[in-house]
Every structure is written in structure tokens, then in C-alpha cells.
Design brief:
The protein is of the alpha+beta class. The protein has helices at 2-19, 39-49, 52-63, 82-89, 101-105, 119-135, 141-162, 174-186, 195-210, 217-220, 224-227, 234-257, 267-277, 288-319, 321-334, 350-362, 395-398, 442-459; strands spanning 66-71, 74-79, 167-168, 372-373, 378-380, 383-385, 390-393, 460-464, 487-492. Keywords: Heme, Iron, Metal-binding, Monooxygenase, Oxidoreductase, Signal.
Length: 504
């Protein structure tokens, strides 16, 4: 028995030594501890700075723009600066997605959907999704019509809400942004007062704040779900997922009950049609579970970032009212007060376009984007990065790289204007990523950001509420940086045309 105990301790010591050895020529970073890697130091820095990306940036300042970490059982490499991030995004070996407990639990323990898969399945699912989103709106005149109607309804909703006092702004764009996408996915829009939708939107906000870009501690040490399911966040994660699955399952059931042989009306119809065609094919992406996870991906990623960007933009405007006046003056000059703005006006609104470009550079809400993974051993800038290493691209460092941005800490939309005052897009700004994993909803997001911003600036004056705390530009850390609750007083601007905005 004593020999067995000695053997056990010897093996344990050998394992601890082995677990602290970094792979050969791995990027520099903090020393590793057995079982934990450098998660304790990372956790302390995150607590100190309040955000994951700022904690990683402190480490990058010490160890360099290619930072090598081990968090729990995960190898993680963080890549910073414009040149290196661009190089990495365009390198084929970095195009995979993480495959661990957190990234599978949302898909019933499998690899489903379009956000966290790779290879032929991802190619097929992305191609199907993009083709049918275009069929049902994206890039078509119908998308502009739907966005215009949603903008009109948003103004009417704000008008009604502002009659009762200051408006709670951090979630006010959720329904309008989701409706712009959901009509293409499910063929209908939601009412602002829909209780089921409001419950689902609360779950979305909870989900983004519960986890971080790496999936949280439950991803780095998944065994904790058995030891401390409450403290590790596992119980809360499953509560959120089960309720979102139920909400989306009801959407799919409505389509199944109303399925016909006619032309599909939306993406869910089209996917169900493919399920029926492929019901005897086992090697297919078209099954009901995959449809549910695809809807989850689009529901979460397709609405949250755009609505939060709008909420943070108006938070910024409330703190810098001089920019509100500049945008209103340009709209009044180009659009006038006799009609609402349209997307066709954008090319004649260079300051508005520059303002939006600077917002996406300066107020970056997804500083680390969506994590990537190496699909095999990779040589990158002289370092060796092992297969299955999680890769984080620091977009915040890209948009603040002093090699390409003059005084990046300042908010200056003029940097996107040429000498003639015309808008000039910078190649060094990557708000939607780059390469094969570039955001598939970019066109809809750009149109939504412009139209919803232009409508509110056109129709309302904004000021901070004296009845509530001053808005705080520092948001909540999580998978993205979410704006904190804040209130604004909205006052309808005088218009040269009579009547009210049309509503549905």
C-alpha cells in the first residue's frame, strides 16, 4: 500500500511538471501552474481592469503582440495590432472554431448551427443561410422597405414612451433590430408589447453577460459543473438555453403546422422543406436540431451587437451633445424637415457616414470578436501554435493601432473624411472582421445602424435625464461589452410636414 501511495505521488508530481511545460517555441506569456495554467493571474488582471480585453492587453504589453496563455485546460493565443490580426484572419489554418463543452452545450452536445462549426458542414450551412436571407430580403428592395417600416414604428414607440417621462434606452432598439432580421427568418415581426419576446430578450442579455469570449470558467474547467454547478454558472447557463430553445421551438412548430408545398415564405420554411427532402439521408445538415441551433445563432448574434451598438451610440451622443447638433444640421440641410431620411440619402451625408464609421472604431463592443481555433499545428510569425489552440484577435488593438491611427484615443469622425469633405472608408477598420469568417449579417447591420440613427436624430432632441444617474459609457463585460441601463429625455423636433409616422 505504501508503495502504491509513493507511486501515486510520483505520477502526480510528474504530471504537474508535464502540465507546466509549454509547447516548443510557443508564444511568450506568464508561467503555467498545474491544472490552472495562468488562469489565476488572468483572473486577477480581469478583476483589476474590469474587462477581459484590457487584462489581455496588459499581458501583451509585457510579452508582445502574440501572447501565449493556458487557461485551465485550454491553450489560448491572443494576436494584436492591425498587421498581425489581418495576417491571422486571412490564414486558412485559423478559420476553425473552438470545440469544447461550452460551445457544444448550446447545441445539445453536438456541433450544429453556423456560428461554432467549421469544414464542409459550415460551408454548406453558411451558403444555405446566405442564399435564403438574400432571397427573403438582404440586398433587396424589400429589406429597405422593412427597415423603413421598423424605423417608423420605432419612432412611434419612442413617441408614446417619452410621453410618460425619460426613456430607458439600453434595450430600446432590441425589437426593431430583431424584427428587421426575423421577418426573413420566420416571416413575421413582433409587437413591442409581446410578453414572450420580452422574456426572450431578457434571456439574450443575460446570456451575453453570463459568459465571456472564451465561454467562462465552465469552458476552461468543465468538471466544475459537477462540483459547483451554481457558482460556475452552469445552472444559469442551462436555464437560459432551455428557455431560448423553448421559445425558438415554438416558432418552428408554427411553421410545421402551417407547412405547404408552395414556395417557402422564409428561412425556416426553406430549411423545413430541405429536411423533408433529406429525411432518409443521414449525412446532412438538414435536421430539426440544426434548424433550432441555426435560429439560436441568428437570434443571438444577429440582433444583440447591432442593438447594443445603437444603444451605446446614443449614450455617447447624450454625453457629447455637440455631435447630435452636427448630425441634425447635416440631416436638415440634405433631407430637410418635410420628409424622413432614406438609405438613398447616405451618400449625401458624409459626416453621418463618418460618424458611424468612427463609432464602430471608437466604441467597439466586441473587442475580441468570436474566438477562432487552429485546425492543425501552425507556424505564425516565428512561433509554433499547436493544433486546437483557441485564437483571439484583439480588434480593440486594431482600431487603436498608432501605426495607422492618429491619436486613436480621441473620437474624431473627421478622420474618415478626405480633403474635399467626402466620406473615405479606412482599410484599417475591421468592425465586421475579415476573411472567410467575416460577419454574414454585415449588410443588414450597416443599413440598420444608419437608418435607426438617422430617424431618431431627425425626429428627436436628446438630453440626459436629471431624474436618473448620469449615463456611464463603461459597459458590462461579457461575451460582448453591453451598455449599462440609462435614461434619456426625448423631445420631438418641429417638422414642416403635418401628420404622424405610420404604424402597423
Amino acid at each position: 500500500m505504501l508503495d502504491l501511495i509513493y507511486l501515486f505521488f510520483a505520477l502526480a508530481c510528474l504530471y504537474c511538471i508535464y502540465d507546466c511545460i509549454k509547447p516548443r517555441n510557443y508564444p511568450p506569456g506568464p508561467a503555467w501552474l498545474p491544472f490552472f495554467g495562468c488562469i489565476l493571474k488572468f483572473g486577477w488582471l480581469r478583476s483589476k481592469h474590469g474587462y477581459i480585453y484590457t487584462a489581455l492587453q496588459e499581458l501583451s504589453r509585457t510579452y508582445g503582440p502574440i501572447l501565449g496563455l493556458k487557461l485551465g485546460n485550454q491553450n489560448v493565443v491572443v494576436i494584436s495590432t492591425y498587421d498581425l490580426v489581418k495576417k491571422g484572419l486571412l490564414q486558412e489554418e485559423f478559420n476553425s472554431r473552438p470545440d469544447g463543452f461550452f460551445f457544444r452545450v448550446r447545441a445539445f452536445g453536438k456541433r450544429k448551427g453556423v456560428l461554432f462549426i467549421e469544414g464542409p458542414m459550415w460551408t454548406q450551412c453558411r451558403r444555405f443561410t446566405m442564399r435564403h436571407l438574400r432571397t427573403f430580403g438582404i440586398g433587396q428592395s424589400t429589406m429597405r422597405e422593412r427597415l423603413t417600416l421598423e424605423a417608423q414604428n420605432l419612432i412611434s414607440h419612442l413617441e408614446r414612451t417619452s410621453e410618460h417621462g425619460p426613456v430607458l434606452m439600453h434595450t430600446v432598439f432590441d425589437v426593431a433590430v430583431l424584427n428587421s432580421l426575423w421577418f426573413m427568418i420566420a416571416g413575421h415581426r413582433f409587437l413591442y408589447e409581446d410578453p414572450k419576446l420580452q422574456e426572450a430578450l431578457v434571456l439574450v442579455h443575460d446570456a451575453f453577460r453570463l459568459t465571456d469570449t472564451l465561454g467562462g470558467v465552465i469552458s476552461q474547467m468543465p468538471f466544475l459543473r459537477f462540483v459547483i454547478p451554481e457558482l460556475s454558472g452552469y445552472n444559469e447557463l442551462m436555464r437560459i438555453l432551455e428557455n431560448l430553445w423553448r421559445f425558438l421551438d415554438e416558432e418552428i412548430e408554427m411553421h410545421e403546422k402551417d407547412q405547404s408545398n408552395d414556395q417557402p415564405r422564409d428561412l425556416i420554411d426553406a430549411f423545413l422543406s430541405e429536411i423533408y427532402k433529406n429525411n432518409e439521408n443521414e449525412d446532412t445538415i438538414f435536421d430539426r436540431e440544426n434548424l433550432l441551433v441555426l435560429c439560436l445563432d441568428l437570434f443571438l448574434a444577429g440582433s444583440k451587437t447591432t442593438s447594443d451598438t445603437l444603444a451605446t451610440t446614443f449614450l455617447f451622443l447624450s454625453l457629447h451633445p455637440e455631435w447630435l447638433k452636427i448630425l441634425q444640421a447635416e440631416l436638415d440641410d440634405v433631407v430637410g424637415r418635410s420628409r424622413p431620411p432614406t438609405e438613398d440619402d447616405l451618400s449625401s451625408l458624409p459626416m453621418t457616414e463618418a460618424f458611424l464609421a468612427e463609432v464602430q472604431r471608437y466604441l467597439i463592443l466586441a473587442p475580441l470578436g468570436v474566438p477562432h481555433r487552429t485546425e492543425k499545428n501552425v507556424s505564425f510569425n516565428g512561433y509554433q501554435i499547436p493544433k486546437d489552440t483557441i485564437i483571439l484577435f484583439d480588434y480593440h488593438s486594431v482600431h487603436n493601432d498608432k501605426t495607422y491611427w492618429d491619436q486613436p484615443e480621441e473620437f474624431r469622425p473627421q478622420r474618415f473624411l478626405d480633403e474635399q469633405g467626402r466620406f473615405s472608408q479606412s482599410n484599417y477598420s475591421l468592425p465586421f472582421g475579415l476573411g472567410k469568417r467575416r460577419c454574414l449579417g454585415e449588410q443588414l447591420a450597416r443599413s440598420s445602424l444608419f437608418l435607426f440613427l438617422a430617424y431618431i436624430v431627425h425626429y428627436f432632441d436628446l438630453e440626459t435625464s436629471t431624474e436618473h444617474a448620469r449615463p456611464d459609457l463603461n459597459g458590462y463585460d461579457g461575451f460582448t461589452i453591453s451598455p449599462k441601463p440609462y435614461y434619456l429625455k426625448l423631445t420631438r423636433r418641429r417638422s414642416d410636414h403635418p401628420g404622424t409616422i405610420a404604424t402597423w
